[in-house]
Amino acid sequence: DKSNQKICNVGYWGKDCIKCKNCSLNGYCDGSGTIMGSGKCICNIGWKGELCNECDMGYYGSNCSKCDQCLNGICNGSNTLFGNGKCICIKPFIGENCDKCLNNLYGINCSKQCNNKFCFEGKCNNGINGDGKCNKCPIGYSGSNCLNCDKYHIKDKNNLCKLETNLSKICNSIDFGYSILDDKYGNCLTC
Predict the structure, then answer these.
(1) What φ, ψ does residue 29 adopt, rounded to 5°?
(2) How far apart are CA 84 and CA 62, in angstroms?
(3) Cβ-Cβ contacts under 8 Å for 139 (sequence gap 6 or more)
(4) DSSP string, 74-102
(5) Which of 142, 105, 88, 91 is nearest to 120 (CA)?
(6) Could you tell me what percentage of the chain is helix, strand and coil, using 3-state DSSP and rounding each to the nearest 5?
(7) Residue 135, Cβ neighbours under 10 Å: how many?
(8) Which carries the bigger pLDDT value, residue 26 or residue 122?
(9) Nearest partner of 126 among 137, 143, 138, 113, judged by Cα
(10) How confident is the model at residue 62 (pLDDT cuts 50, 70, 90)?
(11) Assessment of whether the complete model's pTM goes beyond 0.85
(12) Chain centroid offset of residue 179 CA
């Protein structure tokens, strides 16, 4: 007969209606109000500990707020009641979520270095999805790695691209040379 079955008041558990632990507002007592359960605190998401008074991994601060998603770093204050939840990146990663590479590094692990001296301002297509090719070439250079000389430029003895100043070479180029009248390259029919 169920009418004779003992039921505990809320805040008590088990067949002897033992007082529940104080799980604060961060969890609840397993079995509270019943003759079943374990009496242990079942913590809300973000909380842990015997009394649900500690932050779980990936949560921080006095309210155990969820940390930012730190892909290649750790959350400031994770697993503590302190911190600000911002990512602290592991080198060579940077960015709000530690999902970008330090300048001039590229590749999945940001382990490849863009050290092409011919890239404009030394900058290449860096980042986790980067390929190391130059974003932009300095004046006089062209190609994905800026190793070729641009139109009307030639390599000097130091293998650097310099502006061609020999008018006869310019005038005989397939791009119709330099127009003295218009002071520009290309499309002049005579020099």
Answers:
(1) -80, 125
(2) 10
(3) 150
(4) EETTTTBS-S---EEEPTTEESTTS-EEP
(5) 142
(6) 5, 25, 65
(7) 14
(8) 26
(9) 113
(10) very high
(11) no
(12) 50
Which amino acid, residue 45?
I
Strands 47-48 and 93-94: unpaired
pLDDT by residue (tens digit) across 93-139?
A: 999 999 998 888 888 899 998 877 777 776 788 888 888 888 888 88
* Residues 165, 170: Cα–Cα separation, whole Å: 8
Q: What is the DSSP string of 150-178?
A: PTTEEE-TTS-EEE---HHHHHTSTT--E
Neighbours of 20 (CB within 10 A): 22
**Identity of the amino acid at 88:** I
Which residue's entry shows tokens 């033992």?
A: 18
Q: How far apart are CA 107 and CA 70, in angstroms?
A: 18
β-bridge pairing 27-29 and 18-19: unpaired
Residues of the chain with pLDDT > 90, as a percent, come to: 48
**Measured on CA atoms in the order 49, 52, 54, 57, is the torsion positive or negative?**
positive
pLDDT at 4 (0 to 100): 47
**C-alpha pair distances (Å), 154 with each of 34, 140, 159, 179:** 89, 8, 9, 19
